[in-house]
Design brief:
Layout: E1 2-6, E2 9-12, H1 24-37, H2 49-61, H3 72-80, H4 98-119, H5 121-133, H6 138-146, H7 150-165
Helix pairs in contact: 1-2, 2-4, 3-4, 3-7, 4-5, 4-7, 5-6
Length: 166
């Protein structure tokens, strides 16, 4: 877990009791992405959870097929029951079942992956920085950086999530 310890510093904390050796590289890639991409103490993390976790999941997946995300099989269930209707998925609750957690991370991953595939990684990083670091609304940053309005992009990428999840 990446923990903000000051206004400009994160520390990584790993619980070795629950960490399987085969997962260390993926976990470190994910958490180091947080440590290197977040602006220190961040107060809007719940509203932009999908974007913050999505970019870390993108790094963790390291170019693997989109359908190979651990939450892929559960995403369709969240969509079918109406729990998730856009990319703006909130974080799972602390009591959420493992499948729900994986599915929410999967939606975040696929949403960010859609933006990356559509506009390229450089534009994704610019968009992330503008929204997360500069505090610019998605509806303002999307046309500025991606030359596309946020609502149509959200709909398009949610369609990508739905299609990829099956």
């Amino acid at each position: 877990m990446a923990i903000d310890v000051s206004d400009d510093r994160y520390e990584l904390v790993l619980n070795a009791d629950y960490l399987h050796p085969s997962a260390v590289d993926d976990l470190l890639r994910h958490e180091l992405t947080h440590a290197s991409s977040l602006p220190g103490r961040y107060t809007n993390s719940r509203a932009l959870w999908w974007l913050i976790e999505g970019i870390a999941e993108l790094a963790e997946m390291e170019g693997s097929p989109a359908s190979s995300h651990p939450g892929a099989s559960e995403i369709a269930k969240l969509i079918a029951n109406g729990t998730v209707t856009s990319l703006d998925v909130p974080p799972p609750t602390s009591s959420a079942e493992e499948e729900i957690v994986a599915a929410r991370y999967g939606v975040a991953f696929l949403g960010v992956r859609c933006i990356s595939e559509r506009f390229g990684e450089e534009k994704l990083v610019q968009f992330f920085h503008r929204v997360v670091h500069d505090g610019i609304a998605l509806s303002v940053a999307a046309p500025q950086i991606l030359q596309m309005e946020w609502q149509p992009l959200n709909s398009e990428c949610f369609g990508y999530v739905r299609e990829t999840a099956g």
